[in-house]
Structures are given as structure tokens and as C-alpha cells.
Design a protein that fits this description.
73% helix; 4% strand
Amino acid sequence: MIMWRRIILILLLALPVFAHAQGMPILNVMAGKGGVTQYSLTLQLLALMTVLTLLPSMLLMMTSFVRIIIVMSILRQALGTGQTPPNQVLVGLALFLTLFIMQPVFTDVYNNAILPYMNQGLPFEQALAAAEAPIRGFMMAQTREEDIAMFLDIARNKTELQGPESLPFTTLVPAFLTSELKSAFTIGFLIYIPFVVIDLIVSSVLMSMGMMMLSPMMISMPFKLMLFVLVDGWSMLMGSLASSFAMP
């Protein structure tokens, strides 16, 4: 969260330059009664500041971040290590893995939308459409058809879609998030199984030895950590998560 706040602060500091380049006045200076000067912010600036505030959440919800952070949280709970790794480590790891997975998409957006808009004077509407295309393609590749159909049915959209590009973004985003939650919990279930088996074995051994007052979780946690380290769990998890987003 601290890193996102710093990014937002930098963007806010760059607002005067952006507004000047776009010809948008930052302040309207008006002469009030009694010679008092009044200042008022433009509605465009307020809207821009609102978008910048919501931009991190919007971007994270349209990338691989959701699946990655949920799987890592489930893994930590399955290991029974409490707050280890801490939330900052998990979020940072999920963020950089997201940047690694989304690099082809971000590169496509930069080369086809941002760079032509900044250097070649591409109209904003065309730049926005060019930036939307790779993001839409990534989301469509990870979204289940039944989830899209469900949200189209909820929205009562009876129009015949001409193709993936005609699917409304307001329908694609919740369908993508629903599919990501399903995928994350499916992966988390598969991760949880071996650790549950270890808990059952340790609990059975303790019961047979008459140590019913001893917590099985306290005894099984070292065995879970040992198993996770021996099978190189972090490398397997990172590789599996990255490969799960392979574009068809």
C-alpha cells in the first residue's frame, strides 16, 4: 500500500504538467465581491484525481494479481505459519510476479498505445482502444464462457455479440474476477491436500500415544515446512502460477 501511495503522490505532483500539456486549466481565478480573489478547481481535474485514486485497484483487478495473492494466502494458511511470510512480503511477491506475467501485455500497450499517443499525436480515443485490446485479450483467455454467459444473463443482454471485442467491459471484468476466484480456490485446494494428510498422520500418532492434550498443529508444522522445502515448493508454486496464465 505504501508503494501505491507513493505512485499516486508522484502522479498527483505531475498533474500540473499533464494539465498544461492537455490545455486544461488547473484553477479558475475569479474576482469576487470586495476585490477578493476566488479559486475553484475544474471538474476535469477532480475527475482525473478520482481516476488516479482508483487506478491501482482497477489495474490489479484486471491482471493476474488476484489469483496469485489468494493462492499464496491459502498456502500460508495450509502451512500453519501464522503471519509468516508477512503480508508485505506476499503482496510484494505477488506484485512482481504479476509484472513478470503481464510483461507482454504491458509491452504491447506501451508500444501500440502510449508511445504513439505521446510521440506521434495519436488521438486519445484511438490510443485507449489500442490499449484496451491486449488487456481484453488477456482477460478473455482467462475467463470461463459460463461466467460470461451468467453475467450477460444477469444484465439481460439479448443482443447478439459479434465477437470478443463486442463484449462490454462492464461484463468482462466481473466475469474475469469470478473465473480468477474459481481458479485460485482450485489451486489452493490442491495445495492444501498434502498438508492435511500430514495433519491427519500426526494427529493419529499422537492419539495412539495418548498425547491428546498436545496440539497436533504444533508438531505437524515442522514436518510441513520440511516437506515444502524438500520438494522446492516456492519454485514449483511460482512456476505453476506463471504457467497457468500461458496464452493459448
